[in-house]
Amino acid sequence: MKKKITKKEAQDRIIEFFRQAEEIEPKNFRKIKRLAMSYNIKLGNYRKIFCKECYSDIRYHKGKVRIKNMHKIVECSKCGFLNKWKI
Ligand SMILES: [Zn+2]
């Protein structure tokens, strides 16, 4: 049986997860994203750490970075996807 945790506990778990300095595995990110979604927790800036396409840690797989029309575009060096964020 799955243990129920409170929203606060889920939040702490997420903060703890992103505190790690090493590269985060895509499968672990998917897990934490699912946890956040099930508790309606916004990942906010943490989402910018990952490629939207393959969930790679783009702090470690950063391709070209461009700034265009108030958007920051970071290319994922793993899958080539262009991640755009408003700045
Ligand atoms: Zn990617």
Give an overview of the whole structure.
- It is a single chain.
- With 87 residues, the chain is α+β, with helices and mostly antiparallel strands.
- It has one domain.
- Helix content is 30%, strand content 21%.
- The chain has 2 helices and 3 strands; from the N terminus they run H-H-E-E-E.
- Strands 1-2-3 form a 3-stranded antiparallel β-sheet, with no helix packed on it.
- The longest helix has 13 residues.
- The radius of gyration is 14 Å and the shape is elongated.
- The chain starts with 6 loop residues before the first helix and ends with a strand.
- Bound molecules: zinc ion (ZN).
- The site of zinc ion has 8 residues, from loops.
Distance between the termini: 43 Å
| Number of β-strand runs | 3
Strand content: 15-25%
What is the overall pLDDT average?
Answer: 93
Unreliable segments (pLDDT under 50, ≥5 consecutive)?
none
Category by helix and strand content:
alpha+beta
Helix content: 25-40%
- What general outline do the C-alpha atoms trace? elongated
Query: Rg from C-alpha positions?
Result: 14 Å
Topology:
Elements lengths: L6 H13 L6 H13 L23 E7 L2 E6 L5 E5 L1
Antiparallel strand pairs: 1-2, 2-3
